[in-house]
Design a protein that fits this description.
By secondary structure, the chain is mainly alpha-helical. The longest helix has 15 residues. The termini are far apart.
């Protein structure tokens, strides 16, 4: 008896992509993970980025004031103004230890942009949001203005103690 693989091919295809990119620098075009003493024997791979074992730095990002100039991905990766974070670098031998690194996901974002030739918001719009029917959602920073609020932020500070109307943009997401 034979079974059709059907949608399982997506899982196997994703697995194949994860295992075949043995050095992300081989696929990155507009930026490279800087070589260091830690990358001499082991490389930064897609699998290691996804499992937070690539040895990359920058655990998280603060975001930016709504009126601040937003950095490009390259500026975030290099830690150059107007980025407000340290540069993404390899600080330990890839594959040796788990350490959460939001910086790895910025590398992943640049990798997807370089490989697809599309901006990250456009790529996710095409591959995720449109397929889910999420027509009023976006990964654009700053977010596009809608003719109406899909979800209005709470503006009274008395009930929560927080001002949710002042959200900080995160261009690396």
């Amino acid at each position: 008896m034979r079974f059709r693989a059907g949608r399982l091919c997506v899982c196997f295809g994703a697995y194949r992509c994860i295992t075949c990119i043995t050095d992300v620098n081989g696929r990155l075009k507009s930026w490279q993970v800087p070589e260091s003493e830690f990358t001499k024997t082991q490389k930064v791979t897609l699998r290691r980025i996804l499992s937070h074992s690539a040895g990359l730095t920058v655990p998280g990002f603060l975001g930016y004031a709504s009126d601040a100039q937003l950095p490009t991905l390259i500026q975030i990766l290099n830690g150059t103004p107007p980025a407000n974070s340290q540069p993404v670098r390899v600080e330990m031998i890839p594959g040796t230890k788990f350490r959460y690194a939001g910086g790895g996901y910025v590398v992943l974002q640049q990798l997807l942009t370089d490989v697809s030739g599309k901006s990250f918001p456009d790529l996710l719009d095409q591959l995720v949001l449109k397929k889910l029917g999420m027509d009023h959602s976006s990964f654009l920073e700053p977010p596009p203005q809608l003719p109406y609020f899909v979800c209005r932020p709470r503006r009274d500070r008395a009930s929560t103690g927080l001002n949710h109307a002042r959200l900080l943009p995160h261009p690396q997401r």
